[in-house]
Structures are given as C-alpha cells and as structure tokens.
C-alpha cells in the first residue's frame, strides 16, 4: 500500500507520498487534498506513478481526508433528503472547508515537506466531494489555488443558484470539472439534472469572466455516476491542475472519449443510494452502482488526438490520408521486408471515403463545455457584396450530407438557387444522431417520467439556453470570421427536437436568425410548453416585429404530432394574414417522422435562400 496514515488537525489522513519523497532531501511538493479518504487516487495510483516517471506530471503529495458524515461535511447548507427513507443533508460544508484550510492544512504543512502556498495547493473530490471542492474555490482561495470537481453534485438544492448569484472565483485559480453524459439518467428526483448541471456551471463561470484558459470541463460519453468513471477522470484533473496544461485553442473543454481500455479494479464505492448486500459500497449518495467494466484511461491529449484523427478520416480523399487515419505504415517506409513500391501499391489500393465536393469540417469546443463537429458547404460562386446567406441545421450529422448535395446541384444553373452557405451543427460521432447530446442541446428543462417509447431511459435534458448562447456568442462569430456571411440573412432549421429548438429560438431569441424552419417539431415536449409561449411571439409581432417560419410534417406521422402542428399553424395564421409573419406550411403525404426529411430539403433551401 502506498498510503500512510498521518494525523493532522484532528483527522487521520491517508497520505500518498510521491516516489522521490524519501530521498528528496529538502525538496518540497505541491499538495492535493481529496475528499472521501482519497479513494479516487487509490483507483489510479499506478497510472499516476507512470505519469511521474514519464515527466508528464510533477510529483505531488495527495492527502485523503476522511469524513464521518459526508452528507454533513460536503454540503453547503441544509437540504431535505432526495428520496423518502434516505438521510437529509446537514449543510456543514463551510465549517468543514474552514477546518481543512485553518487546521488540517497547517498541521500537515508542519509535518511534511509541502509547498504551502495556495498556488501549490489544491482540493478535489467526486460527487458531493466534488461539490464541496468547487465551493472551497469560492470560500478559501487563500488556501486552495486549484480545485477538481469530478461529477460534482450540482443538482444539490441551491447549488447552481449560488453560482449564478455569486461573482466568479478568484481568476488565479485553476478549475477542473467533469461529468458523464448519462449521469442521473435513471433518476426520478432532482438528481436527474446531474449531466446538464455541470456544463451549465461552466457556462455561468465563463459568462462571469472566469478565464477560459484556467477552466477545463471534460465530458465522459455514456458515463454514469459511478466511482469507476470518476477515477478515470482523476489523472486528467491532476494534469490540468498541476501539470501546467492550458485549454486548447477553441475552448477550455474537451470530450473524453477513450478507445483503448486498460484493466481496472472495481470501484470501492459507487456513490450509490443503496449499497448492494455484501457489496463494496461504503456510503450512499447518488446513482445506483452499475456493473463494473474495464477502466478506460481517457487522458486529455489522447482525446484530442482521437478527435483530430476522426476529423482527418472524415475528410480523407486520398489513400495516404486513409493510411494515416488507420495507423498503416507510411508509403515511404519498409515494413517486414516489403519494398517501398509494395507498400505504396497496397496503400493506394485502399478505398477512400466519399466526401461531398465543396465541403469542409472543423471541430469547435464551446466555452460552455461541449465539443461540436461543424460541417460547412462553401459555394463555388462568389459571394454577393453583403456576403452569403446562411442556413444552420442542427443534428448536422444526419442532414448535412443531403443538404450539401442538394445545394451543390441546385445552385449550378443560372436559374437555380443563389449561392449560400449551409452549416451542419454536429457532434464528434459517425452516427446520424448523438442522442444524449441532442437531448441536452435541443430541449428546455423537463421532468420526464417512465421510459421513452423505445423502452430506453430518458437522457438528461434542458440545455437549450446554453446552446443558444453557444450559437450566438461563439459559432456564428466564428463562421463570420471564416466565411463572407450576411448576418441579416441567417436561417435556423431543425427536425423533431430540432424543430422544437428552432421554434424556441424564434420565440426567445428574436433577431438571432431571420428565418426558422421547424420540421416535425416535437411540440409535445414539456407538456406542450411552446404553445404556452406563443403569446410572446404574437405580442412581439403585433407590436411591429417580423419573422419568417416554415412548418412541415409528414402525413403519416403520429396523430398527436399532426394535431399539434396543425394547431400551431392555425394560431399563427392571423399573424401571417397581417403581414407580420411569412408563414410556409407543408404536409408531405405518405411520409413518416424520419422519411419526411428528404422531401423537406428542397422546399427548405428555397425558403432559406430565395430572397422574398
């Protein structure tokens, strides 16, 4: 065992001393204080030792701080239990942080060769331990200059409100946040908002002026609220807080998608609401433990490399690009006795992936914490003096290819469509839909009961406002920096939940887009809330505003979908007749919810690019 028990300030700490400590002479070390007796470190100690050996991480002391009642120590104020029969929360977190900063830290500094300054001292933890670590950054920057909040319990009553209300923490701090995209997905109480709450906190911090280069948020695709996933993020947190790494260009946050799994040990506690009989869970808090799988070390650099590789493969138009993306030997090398000519011939024989001519793709990481893949169709014809009109389509992975091909064909002839830029806002996946991501980006907060129609659990939701912020403050300016775009002629399109989002943007962000397309809109979302918001749009247009909307749906879609869309059209007709709303409506006979997409494309392009 690499941990030593050292008493400090009235608590018995589990302290990891780095390999060189015993022979380090007078050398002093940074310190990270970790909640829950440093269990996060226990599950990754050998990997961290390898980072020390490779020079990727400076050696540091990790001090695990035990708690007799984490529901008291790690909560900022009292709160009721999350479920009947469960313990409530005592709210003694501020006293705990002050004890840690004022008693425990000085006692440990006196016993060990630490670097006691706040810039060399951090605090970290998972779940409720992550919540209190983040709040310690607010309360005691005089003691802690870095904080790692891994799967922090920002669902806790009042936590996000606190972050919204208070000024951002000291700008000299370094903050690391992480969360799994499936955290809370099986919950029916307020913990259901786990996955969405962490990117929302990052968005608020950045909006308040916290430096982007000193904030990192990593998302674990499919990750649940289990110690297994939390332990995977711990080495990445250390590298960001103590390794000197800064956020990459394009944003402070990355998607942590690990492809190469390493053998991992079982998590000692899974932050479960109820430990399994005879199981290893020591305390109960959030998610029910899931079957343990092999640990995946998803380090930041590896994630970035894979993202770049995926982007390269998607754009590959030559055999050499495919060879590089497949880790094949370079054409100029010799492998296993093969000649250069043999290797070149084999490489050249590989099929290349098809790509639409005149298209580009680039990754973009939002300041609020999510990674996107942006697909762009660039016209061959020159831009008009005011710039190209722009069509932005959400769910870009599913629709961009068809849109780009349609645009390429329909702009060739002088009497065809005028040139315009088509942008697909997609995700770093080769699947047509990134279900968990789109449910967050395209919806407003809603409590979903039961299971989805396909029998699966409802993903986290409620990030529409944050996604609109990303479009307005980041994506659109970046597009206008790269391409000549007319900001007065922007159209937003979406289908299904994307149709809901387009309508929501029309109502809540007037002027961001001139025109909106809503195909098969999910008006059922959150008890038909969009129909309840419609008076906002009606009042704005009646007072002198203007808008353009295309509504479309398949004739074979669910009866309730058809009924809702027709009802929306009926309510909008008076605005159209008054001239305040340019309204186009289409029902495509014999088309269902998915098949309607392709018949919709050409009318949508005409709606977006023909100047009416």
UniProtKB/TrEMBL annotation:
Stretches assigned to coiled coil? none
Sorted alphabetically, which Gene3D superfamilies does this protein's record hold? alpha/beta hydrolase
MF GO annotations:
hydrolase activity
Question: Which keywords does this chain's UniProt record carry?
Answer: Hydrolase
Residue ranges crossing the lipid bilayer per the database entry: none
Q: Where is this region: Disordered?
A: 251-303
- Bias class Low complexity marks the residues at 289-303
Instruction: Quote the InterPro entries the UniProt record gives.
Output: AB_hydrolase_fold (IPR029058), Esterase-like (IPR000801), Mycobacterial_A85_antigen (IPR050583)
Read off the Pfam families from this record: Esterase
PANTHER family according to UniProt: ENTEROCHELIN ESTERASE-RELATED (PTHR48098), FERRI-BACILLIBACTIN ESTERASE BESA (PTHR48098:SF6)
Designated name of the protein: Trilactone hydrolase [bacillibactin] siderophore
């Amino acid at each position: 065992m690499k941990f030593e028990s050292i008493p400090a300030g009235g608590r018995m700490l589990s302290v990891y001393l780095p390999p060189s400590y015993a022979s380090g002479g007078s050398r002093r070390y940074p310190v990270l204080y970790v909640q829950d007796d440093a269990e996060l470190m226990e599950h990754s100690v050998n990997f961290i030792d390898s980072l020390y050996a490779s020079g990727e991480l400076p050696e540091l002391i990790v001090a695990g701080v035990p708690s007799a009642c984490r529901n008291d120590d790690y909560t900022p104020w009292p709160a009721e239990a999350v479920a009947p029969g469960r313990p409530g929360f005592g709210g003694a977190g501020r006293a705990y942080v002050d004890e840690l900063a004022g008693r425990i830290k000085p006692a440990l500094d006196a016993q060990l060769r630490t670097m006691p300054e706040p810039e060399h001292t951090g605090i970290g933890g998972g779940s409720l331990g992550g919540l209190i670590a983040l709040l310690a950054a607010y309360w005691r920057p005089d003691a802690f200059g870095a904080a790692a909040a891994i799967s922090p319990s920002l669902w806790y009553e009042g936590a996000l409100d606190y972050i919204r209300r208070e000024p951002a923490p000291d700008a000299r701090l370094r903050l690391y946040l992480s969360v799994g995209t499936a955290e809370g997905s099986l919950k029916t109480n307020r913990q259901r908002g786990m996955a969405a709450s962490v990117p929302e906190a990052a968005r608020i911090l950045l909006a308040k002026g916290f430096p982007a280069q000193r904030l990192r948020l990593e998302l674990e695709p499919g990750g649940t609220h289990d110690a297994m996933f939390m332990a995977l993020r711990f080495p990445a947190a250390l590298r960001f807080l103590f390794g000197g790494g800064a956020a990459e260009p394009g944003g402070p946050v990355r998607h942590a998608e690990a492809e190469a799994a390493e053998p991992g040990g079982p998590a000692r506690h899974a932050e479960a609401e109820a430990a399994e009989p005879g199981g290893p869970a020591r305390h109960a808090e959030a998610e029910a433990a899931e079957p343990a799988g092999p640990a995946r070390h998803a380090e930041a650099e590896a994630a970035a490399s894979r993202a770049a590789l995926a982007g390269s493969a998607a754009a590959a138009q030559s055999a050499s690009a495919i060879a590089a993306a497949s880790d094949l030997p370079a054409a100029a090398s010799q492998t296993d006795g093969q000649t250069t000519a043999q290797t070149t011939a084999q490489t050249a024989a590989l099929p290349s992936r098809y790509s639409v001519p005149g298209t580009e793709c680039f990754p973009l990481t939002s300041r609020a914490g999510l990674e996107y893949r942006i697909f762009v169709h660039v016209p061959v014809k020159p831009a008009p003096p005011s710039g190209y009109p722009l069509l932005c389509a959400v769910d870009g992975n599913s629709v961009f290819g068809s849109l780009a091909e349609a645009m390429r064909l329909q702009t060739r002839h002088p009497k065809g469509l005028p040139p315009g830029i088509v942008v697909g806002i997609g995700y770093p996946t080769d699947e047509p839909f990134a279900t968990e991501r789109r449910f967050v980006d395209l919806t407003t907060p809603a409590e979903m009961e039961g299971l989805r129609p396909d029998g699966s659990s409802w993903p986290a939701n409620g990030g529409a406002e944050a996604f609109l912020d990303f479009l307005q403050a980041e994506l659109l300016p970046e597009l206008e920096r790269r391409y000549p775009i007319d900001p007065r002629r922007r159209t937003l399109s979406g289908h299904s939940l994307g149709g809901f989002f387009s309508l929501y943007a029309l109502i809540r962000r007037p002027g961001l887009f001139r025109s909106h397309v809503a195909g098969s809109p999910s008006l059922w979302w959150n008890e038909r809330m969009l129909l309840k918001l419609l008076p906002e749009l009606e009042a704005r247009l009646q007072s002198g505003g203007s808008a353009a909307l295309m509504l479309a749906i398949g004739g074979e879609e669910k009866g309730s979908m058809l009924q809702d869309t027709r009802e929306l059209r009926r309510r909008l007709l008076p605005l159209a007749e008054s001239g305040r709303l340019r309204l186009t409506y289409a029902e495509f006979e014999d088309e269902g919810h998915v098949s309607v997409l392709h018949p919709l494309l050409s009318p949508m392009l005409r709606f977006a690019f023909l100047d009416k």
